[in-house]
Amino acid sequence: MRVCVIGTGYVGLVTGVCLAHIGHHVICIDNNEEKVKLMKSGQSPIYEPGLSELMQSSAASGNLEFSTDLEAGVKHGEILFIAVGTPALPTGESDTRYVEAVARGIGAHLNGGYKVIVNKSTVPIGSGDWVRMIVLDGVAERQKNLVAAVGGISTLERIEADFDVVSNPEFLREGSAVYDTFNPDRIVLGSNNPKAIEMMKELYAPLVKRQFADDPSLPPVPVVVTDLSSAEMIKYAANAFLATKISFINEVANICDRVGADVTQVAKGIGLDSRIGSKFLSAGIGWGGSCFPKDVSALVHTAEDYGYETELLNAAINVNKRQRTIAIEKLQQELKILKGKTVGLLGLTF
After folding, report:
1. pLDDT digits (tens, 9 = 90+) for 189-243
2. What residues form DSSP beta bridges with 116?
3. Hey, which end of the chain has fewer CB within 10 Å, N or C?
4. d(CA 318, CA 253)
5. Within 10 Å of residue 40's Cβ, how many Cβ atoms?
6. Which residues are designated catalytic?
7. What does residue 101 show for φ and ψ, rounded to 5 degrees?
8. CB count, 10 Å around CB of 186?
9. Which region holds residue 50: left if phi is over 0, alpha if psi is between -120 and 50, else beta?
10. Cβ-contact 191, 228 below 8 angstroms
11. Is the entire prediction scored with pTM above 0.70?
């Protein structure tokens, strides 16, 4: 299939390279000329195990290209991925200006033929309909400019805008993104149009059938088909749950310190319960990185917009904020005075 991935950050580049590797013709678009030049030379701007090798082999086979030309990418792709950043604003909201710019650009360059526009970026719930509106605004602006260019004559043929928006959230772990793409736990597709869903299923068929998985004998990857809003919520709910699970074990660890219990033994004991599981039960100084803080805050903010107070999520955030100070308290208990001391950190994840 012909694919265009707009945005070559962490998610966009991994998505584009892996789709090219499984046999699709992918053009990755980015507005950073130096970055595109680097990728054209076969070098990845990010480090992910195996990514550079896949980039080079896919480019050599002709399945992978890099460009700054959005118009060429839109015309090429029957499936267009929006994979730009949505950083957190000080209010906790997601900054969607880059998504808006891309959606408007897609509308300005839509040509004949049906397109599926895929939100791969983590976007606020309800963004699918919003992106559709922005794309249509871009189409209308282009039509207006064409009319103006011919002296106000409005008998021009109307620009076709046959497309649907699909929500397809990513669940990649930094450091394991290529592995996660080829061995997903599930694939989530949100749309109200069966045609768009069928095209996405065709796109992901090699992954669903585990043709590139480490263990091809496993059952097919579950494909969760929902409406747009539910797919968007799945991403936020997953990250919020994991963040809450970490805050929970950190709270338990703080109680263990006071009663003389060993939190590592406690975590092992409760993790063997199949209802709980052992993952994300490692006590420490809290959660961070580019996803958990942003996504939990965005979900809290969305709930506030709809008049709901997220007491559990607020508690998870507060526990996480407090946890980083507990490390300092432990140092003070042992060293008494911290000023002038040299502190070593083993591990710099997040």
Report:
1. 999 899 999 999 999 999 999 999 999 999 999 999 999 999 999 999 999 999 9
2. 79, 164
3. C
4. 15
5. 13
6. 291
7. -60, -40
8. 11
9. left
10. yes
11. yes
